[in-house]
Amino acid sequence: MKKLLFFIVLITNLFGITQNDVYNLYKKGDYKNTCLKGMWILNQFKHDDNYQSIVALSCVKVDMLNTAIRITKTMNHTPIGRHNASYISSLFLNKKLLLQLVYDNIDISNLSLPKSEHPLSIVFENVSHHNFSKIDNTYIIEYNGKKYILSPYKNDKFIIKILKNNKLISKHIYW
Fold first, then answer.
1. Is position 113 within any domain?
2. What range does the domain containing 24 cover?
3. Cα–Cα dist 64/73, whole Å
């Protein structure tokens, strides 16, 4: 454990990443670097749910859900930390169940999870309530003027494409 702590302190000093650097990246909307650089110094702030929430939610914004879920293990010191950890855990469960739906054809119609405006939640909610059309192994959902297309992607992944007026506005790849 001492070696790990020494390594983390060494890396932090080598790269010069500070908590303020991470906060500034977040304020600028640079969520990918907030996630990546925030992870470098995460152990120094394992009792700071606000810091952990900023890093974890940034990871969610850039579809790095596997990284975000690792952070939630210690987000239990404040109501906001517990809330954010539950939100991220719910998205992670959405992801895992949608992966099983796409590759194993499991029935998710009897499942209910907390709802949000995250693409994983929107797709899960609509598929679990049979609000979709299906072509082969692709699910098509119409929601709030957008089309969400869930389909398998290479190497046991899946993709959610979001279209508005038949133009691709974003895509999210999960594994």
1. yes
2. 2-77
3. 16
pLDDT(167) > 70: yes
Query: Which residue blocks in 16-129 are alpha helix, DSSP H?
Result: 19-27, 31-40, 49-61, 65-71, 79-104, 119-128
Q: What is the pTM of this model?
A: 0.86
- Total residues belonging to the chain: 175
pLDDT at residue 8 is higher than 80: no
Q: Report the alpha-carbon angle 74-77-82, nearest 5.
A: 75
* 70 and 113 fall within a common domain: no
The predicted-structure confidence for 106-147, as pLDDT tens digits, reads as follows 999 989 999 999 999 999 999 999 999 999 999 999 999 999
Strand order in the sheet with 167-174: 133-135, 138-143, 146-153, 157-164, 167-174
What angle (nearest 5°) sits at the alpha carbon of residue 71, between those of residues 32 and 116?
75
